[in-house]
Every structure is written in structure tokens, then in C-alpha cells.
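From the shared-data thread, chain only:
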Amino acid sequence: MNNIYLSIVAASRNDNHGNNLDERTNLFIKSLAENCEKYKISSELILVEWNQIPNTKTLSDRLNLISNEYLESKIISVNKDHHLKLPNSNRLQFFQMIAKNVGIRRASGKFILATNIDVIINQKLYEFISQKKLEEKKIYRCDRHCIEYDYSGNIEDNYLDQFTNFIDKKYYSLDTKTKIRYYVYSNVFRHIKTFLESIFRKKEKSLIERIKLKNFISILKKIIFYFRNYKVFQKKLFTNACGDFTLLDKNSWNALKGYCELPIYSWHLDSLLLWEARFKNYDFHDFNGDYYIYHMNHLKSGVISEKTKLFENLDNNKIPYLTNDEFLDIAMKLSKNPNYLKTNEFWGLHNQNLN
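Structure, as C-alpha cells:
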């Protein structure tokens, strides 16, 4: 297929992680195939199979990898040998952002959408993309509707909308049943609040004992960082659930060298790309509430309370990830040197011969 306009990149593995893996992925592919054809968007799907387990059914064997006149679907496999070369590979079986970089580096489209296998794109987004008015050096973001999908195969918007139970928006996540808003934990004031609560709510120790000099200095640095970059923070970045939908032209993905390739759990790594882009003066287009994606919940993936269990599990298994404080510390370093995280010219296993 020539003159590909849109490359869709996602990553997975063949160990049946999560639940309903095959069903979710097949619906993801089905939606892409039907809508790329419907809206006449010349596209390719690159699905990266990371850390392929030998003697187990591959994704090619298990999935309905649909291709048609407007969508070419293919799988790029990264075997276990490549995985084992990375630090922490004995504790973490899937380096999601490095896997996505593999696909981004090998994509042919003028624009590249980094997304996930449990996502269905709303019709309005397809219609917008089909107009071919996407701009270079501009990052496109949208809301995410988490749905308790019944896997009926019906992927019409009107049908999917009725299953929405959680909406991840720019500033907060909304529980559609209780109407409770959970504000995004990514600004300095939330960190200051947490710090103050840790001091004044713990009455079993004296005030002096409760104030840790290290924490106080850390908070002070973040306050200074905030006011020095006030204009940057004035317009908040849309980082909430950004790993499920980040759309950018190919040249810019290459200039940014993809996601940072820290060999850790992927928490915050998708957000760091946006902060890096902000400090490099990229523009952002945040779609309004009419344009969104559907996220097919698995287990309790769309429930805020489950995040606590996630981090407990990571800590118990000694799987490294970026804490909120570490994330802000890196953001501070990016403000001084936007290339702080990007030193590898061979990002995305560019120097490796993959099939």
C-alpha cells in the first residue's frame, strides 16, 4: 500500500495477559479495518509482539489480522533474547513503551497514532482524520471513555456509549455513576497538599519529627520550578490516559526519538513524552468532548481504587516505576535540558533485525 496517511501502533504479547485478550484485540482490529475503509483513510496497523514466548501460539496464530484496501495489518515480533538484554527483564515481562517505539520506528505513515489493543476509536475521530487536516509538530489528544463491554461484536458508537462507566478527561476522571471527580495528580499544588497532610495529620509525633528536611527541600524545589515555568503550567498538558491515544506526525516522532526507554513499568512514561514536547515548543490539540476513544475494561482497569493495588503489587514484586515525585524531578530536568532522556540513537531497537 502506497502513500500511507496513518500508522496505528500498539504492542502486546502472547502470554494471554489481562483477560479476554484475543477478543479485545480482535475488536480493536475489526474497528480499525471497518472504519479506515469507511472513511477511506490509507492506513497500516503495526502490532508489536514483545517478548514472544517460544512453543506458544503467537499473535499471528490467535488473532484475526484483517487487512483490506485501506488497512494493511502486520505483526512485528521481538523475541525473548532481545527482552532479556534489558535491565529488570527478570521481573517485568513487557516493556510497553520500548515495544511501541519498535513500531513507531518502523512505521510508514505520514502520521502515527500510538495506542493500545483494548481501544476502539469513536467515529468522529475517524471523520476528523479523514479530512487530512492534521498538522505537523502538533500533538493530538482526546478523552477516554472506559466501558464495561459485553463483547457482542457491536462496535457502533450508539451501542458502546451505553456501557460507559468512567471518563478520563483532561483535568480529572469522572465516575459516571457516582459523579465523583478524581483530579489528575500531576500538578505541584497536589504535591504540596500531600506534603502538608503528611505533617499535620500524623499527631503521634511532634511537629519537628514530622517535618523531614529532605521532603521539605523537595517541595521547595518544585514550587520554584512551578513559578519559573508558570507559562508552561498555565495551560495544563492533557496527560490523563495519554498512552491510549497520542497522535503526531512521523517526522516529529523521530525528532523526539519516541518514548523514553527506561526499562521500568510504563507508569508516567507516556506523560514524559508530552512534557518533553512542551519544553521543545510543540503545539497541542485537545479534542473537545465529542471526540473520544473507548477503552474496553479488563478486570478492574477502569477503577481508580485499583491503582492502589497496582502499586502495592509493583512494590511487592520489586518492579521499578516512576513515583509522582520522581516524575516531577525528571520534568524539572527536562525544563533545563529537553534532551535529558534521549541519548540512544538506536531507540526502538533500530539496530536490530526484526521480522
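DSSP finds 14 helices and 13 strands in the chain.
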